[in-house]
Amino acid sequence: MDLVAPVVVEPLRRRRCSECRQGPLERMIVEFNTPVCLDCADLGHLVFLRRGDTALTRRARENSGLWAVVVRHNRRRTRYERQGLLVEEEALARAERACLADAEARARRRARDAVRRAALDTEITALLRAEIQRLFPSCPEDRVTEIAVHASAKGSGRVGRTAAGRSLDRGAVTAAVRASVRHVDTPYDTLLMQGVPRHQARTRIAPAIEAVLRAWRHGGGDASGRGRG
């Protein structure tokens, strides 16, 4: 049988309980479109566990006979986001004891995982660097390294972290190089600061970008194109 946890809301404005009239409420549930405090909802004995510690949260939830999800509305993203859980106090205490007991083992596992991730990140950067050099043999060494490191930064969502980038797709690698040229070797950023619309600015600096890319592909001449002035 699937469990359906109660949903508790952290209100963005001052609300009072529709039953006991207490308020303002820090947390509440909504019944028939009206706010109800946790005491009236028979959840007042639960304690709040803020999100963040995955192991502690999982163990507290598993040990708690009654628990609830706490959410808050994010106006900018127009959605509700989880803040944590309400769990039984004894369940939280048992979960904390269990986490303390195996804290050393979990720390060693995190350290091993960090080493593996660092090695993978280094490998991704090295492969991307080699492919940039292959496609643009006249690109300066320092720029090749700069582009590869920037494009493969973990958590950036940039080309090097995408599936296309990891597979060294020619178009994806070229896009990373083009983006670097756009910001470093053309007045693109200056145009944006002057209020020029993005698409118009890109059109204006497109010939300069292509000139740099051609020079880096085939060599010859000063390909820096440092046109920031």
Describe the structure.
This protein is α+β, with helices and mostly antiparallel strands. The protein is 49% helix and 14% strand. The protein is built from eight helices and six strands; from the N terminus they run ββββαββααααααα. It has helices at 54-63, 89-101, 103-135, 141-151, 163-166, 170-184, 188-193, 198-218; strands at residues 7-9, 28-31, 34-37, 47-50, 68-74, 79-87. Strands 1-5-6-4 form a four-stranded mixed beta sheet. Strands 2-3 form a two-stranded antiparallel sheet. Strand 2 (28-31) and strand 3 form a beta hairpin. Helix 1 (54-63) packs across helix 2 and helix 3 crosses helix 4. The longest helix is centred in the middle third of the chain and has 33 residues, at 103-135. The radius of gyration is 27 Å and the shape is elongated.
TL;DR?
With 229 residues, the chain is an alpha+beta fold. Helices cover 49% and strands 14% of the residues. The chain is built from 8 helices and 6 strands.
Biggest beta sheet summary: 4 strands, mixed
Helices and strands: which structural class?
A: alpha+beta
Report helical residue fraction.
Answer: 40-55%
Large-scale geometry: elongated
Tell me the number of helical segments per DSSP (H or I, 4 or more residues long).
8
**Low-pLDDT ranges:** 155-162, 225-229
The value of Rg in angstroms is 27 Å
Mean pLDDT across all amino acids = 84
In whole angstroms, the N-to-C terminal distance is: 68 Å
> What fraction of residues sit in β-strands?
5-15%
- What's the total number of strands? 6
Query: In what order do the strands lie side by side in the largest sheet?
Result: 1-5-6-4
Q: Helix and strand string, N-terminal first?
A: EEEEHEEHHHHHHH
